[in-house]
Amino acid sequence: MTHELVEQLFGKALANPILDRMDDAASLELEGRIAFTVDSHVVTPIFFPGGDIGRLSITGTVNDLAMIGAKPLYITAGFIIEEGYLLSDLEAIVASMKTAADEAGVKVVAGDTKVVERGAADGVFITTSGIGSIPSGVNISGSNARPGDAVIVSGTIGDHGATILSRREGMVFEVELKSDCAPLGGLVEEMLAASHGIHVLRDPTRGGLAATLNEIAISSGVDIEIEEEIIPYRGEVRAACELLGLDPLVLANEGKLVAFVAEAEAKMVLEAMRANRYGIDATVVGHVAKVESSRPRVYARTLLGSRRIISMPTGEQLPRIC
Amino acid sequence: MTHELVEQLFGKALANPILDRMDDAASLELEGRIAFTVDSHVVTPIFFPGGDIGRLSITGTVNDLAMIGAKPLYITAGFIIEEGYLLSDLEAIVASMKTAADEAGVKVVAGDTKVVERGAADGVFITTSGIGSIPSGVNISGSNARPGDAVIVSGTIGDHGATILSRREGMVFEVELKSDCAPLGGLVEEMLAASHGIHVLRDPTRGGLAATLNEIAISSGVDIEIEEEIIPYRGEVRAACELLGLDPLVLANEGKLVAFVAEAEAKMVLEAMRANRYGIDATVVGHVAKVESSRPRVYARTLLGSRRIISMPTGEQLPRIC
Fold first, then answer.
1. CB contacts, 8 Å: A21 with chain B
2. Quick check: A80 and B125 CB within 8 A?
3. Which of A134, A164, A183 is the last residue of a domain?
């Protein structure tokens, strides 16, 4: 497998007029404010139920752009490939990127490949960077949560993390676990069209809902209280967590978002979300409160009324999850 | 070394108001046409005379933007780090990125780090993506070379490639070889201010001048003829090539560019280049001609008048050169 062969493979699979120009940089027309982001992907296994590193690399970057309210538009991809990695697997990965990019309405406009010797990388790593345009008037940030805001999750929690982990452990369930890996640009666009009261959007990837809520609490200087029993989970995720002794709140998600919305607008936003295939199970799971103790905290309340602190997960519970 | 520790290290070293917001994507104000590019860096050794992977990751991306005439502005960086890699080395790499970014006038606005287990990567890999703004009226592309154009190189050829290779071979010269690794955004800006007759800009990295000239010949559908004896080389590069049996024309450069300029403007462009520290040795080394045979070719002419074809380097002469 030569470097040229790989570049041809990618150029062909991802072809579009901008990529085809093959200059050192792509030239694009954009208007207004721009969102710009990056994510490196090192997931293992590279292929998993519900996706693969290719799909993940597109949806991860698309979702990061969408989480500040931007319309995802263009992607670059840097590939680091271990010498001897199967060409047919690379083809499958790039085809999967193309499918995800088409679904998300984005174009891959520049790419780079580096082949390293056997043993210097583990299969393939993909770093994607993305740009999108931020519609005027949109101001979404992790620091915008306000007391009274409703906390909405867009669907079941923990699917991606439970899938990757159970694969690694070689576990098989009767109902197969599947990653939720999906592009959320369309969902966000419909939410923004439905309401001007969306303050925060965040995709709970590494560290799961626990990390995301803690980050928002700290950025915004607020407390967050969630009702533990109403958070939606798939039965098989719950089963996997029980077997493996895991807390689903720290498991990564790759096709879910958390929205903080002005209370009066929550119903409207929820309706808009449920009309989208990636928001069917959207649920209000909690609310924002003023800081109660010396620093911002996230609390989980049970049906019986007891309350516990959800702390920031420390270290990396699941390395190479994305 | 935890993932959080590394993120703190990067956030501190590269601090700026946009990066500090820590949202999923950076929000930027830009006007007009945008250039967008990506490069993965896997160079070994990670530290080399004249630079390191950190400096290279910034200058490589800055230069790709400059080569379509864009003013480099913002960078994202995705780090893939092998568990156990020295924290002090990471600090040195990030400090070096900061120095290069300051020199180039760009900001690192978003970053991502993934730590993989020992043996799953070789030290550290950095993928940088960059955006820049293309001034109105600028139209630089590898497909714009025209018969009659002067071919200018900005300085000595082969410095980076010869440095990396001799390090790997454990060779020591009396005069130390040094990579030319440098940001060329300022040089390009001054060239564009001096003349509207610049048709092509390209940095001859992987595959060296031989690959770059062949790519331009094919993209533009022209022949290119260069005078082999007037191409500037450092004595120590020439010596290394003789010892190792290498052709300096295929060695990578990381702080040089090739410009194709309308003949009447060549003198003005050359003067502007020589006034910049990265263009002091700029030299006209050849010219563009109409295609002579059945397909575009690059020729080297010797002082004695003989002529040979410079073919596209096949395969990767020097893997992990950048």
1. 141, 143
2. yes
3. A134
